[in-house]
């Protein structure tokens, strides 16, 4: 598995997308950098990360055994991979905030940006970008963020953590290949942040409402129980969990 190490780049996702042009790259090809000058988050947000303190990398995975309707299973597999990786490093109280933020003790320690290449209803390849806060301790202006160091008290070697995460991604992509969708979904739901807890949401129209997260649909939608017999399902971009 080839790993390209760069001192600085705008965004490892942007770089790997170009490199794998059209989804034809070697499975597992990885790009990691010490500094991103234009790190991208979900929904057009910015991902900032202190130079050389954290992991910012992207990995290309062959996903040609999945069709577009199954795209959320990639999200589940990668979330679970990061979950297992940080757990093996001694982190506790880990939750997955839909769709794929990794939290510990209610603070975000990793973000995931997945950009798929689609050809004729098939996901020919997936560029999986991960920002994992490892050794950063100053999160001024980001009160909801944390790092492995802040949570565990241990400084981690970035190369070692990268190896652990990549191994977990391989393991979880094998589950995808074996079509173990039910197991992946059950595990993902068991780690879901604020599941069955009274929560407040904002929908795409800006309306605030209360409900309980009850699970994830087969297509990756967030299912929220609004009233006794009413469950609403939301696509990504249609709802924000406020608290
Ligand atoms: C999010 O939580 O909004 C997703 C953040 C994803 C950040 C990673 S860092 C490596 C890769 N390159 C990017 O530009 N973004 C992802």
UniProtKB/TrEMBL annotation:
Keywords, alphabetical: Ligase
Q: Per its UniProt record, what InterPro entries does this chain match?
A: aa-tRNA-synth_II/BPL/LPL, Biotin_CoA_COase_ligase, BPL_LPL_catalytic
Gene Ontology, cellular component aspect: cytoplasm
CDD domains (UniProt xref):
BPL
EC number(s) reported in the record = 6.3.4.15
Segments forming domain BPL/LPL catalytic: 1-177
Q: Which domain of life is it from?
A: Bacteria
Positions of transmembrane segments: none
Matching entries from NCBIfam families are given as: birA_ligase (TIGR00121)
The record, for PANTHER family, names: BIOTIN PROTEIN LIGASE, BIOTIN--PROTEIN LIGASE
Q: What is this protein called?
A: Biotin--[acetyl-CoA-carboxylase] ligase
UniProt source species: Gelidibacter gilvus
């Amino acid at each position: 598995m080839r790993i390209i190490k760069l001192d600085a780049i705008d965004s490892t996702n942007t770089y790997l997308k170009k490199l794998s042009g059209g989804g034809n790259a070697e499975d597992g090809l990885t790009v990691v950098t010490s500094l991103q000058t234009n790190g991208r988050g979900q929904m057009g947000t910015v991902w900032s990360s202190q130079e050389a303190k954290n992991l910012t990398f992207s990995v290309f995975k062959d996903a040609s055994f999945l069709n577009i309707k199954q795209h959320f299973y990639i999200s589940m597999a990668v979330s679970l991979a990061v979950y297992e990786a940080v757990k093996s490093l001694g982190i506790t109280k880990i939750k997955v905030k839909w769709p794929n933020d990794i939290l510990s003790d209610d603070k975000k320690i990793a973000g995931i940006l997945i950009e798929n290449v689609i050809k004729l209803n098939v996901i020919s390849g997936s560029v999986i970008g991960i920002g994992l806060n490892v050794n950063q301790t100053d999160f001024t202006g980001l009160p909801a963020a944390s790092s492995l160091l802040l949570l565990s008290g241990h400084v981690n070697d970035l190369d070692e953590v990268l190896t652990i995460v990549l191994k977990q991604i391989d393991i979880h992509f094998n589950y995808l290949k074996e079509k173990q969708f039910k197991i992946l979904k059950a595990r993902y739901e068991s780690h879901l942040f604020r599941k069955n807890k009274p929560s407040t949401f904002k929908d795409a129209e800006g309306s605030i409402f209360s409900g309980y997260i009850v699970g994830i649909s087969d297509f990756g939608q967030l299912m929220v129980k609004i009233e006794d017999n009413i469950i609403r399902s939301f696509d990504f971009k249609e709802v924000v969990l406020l608290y």
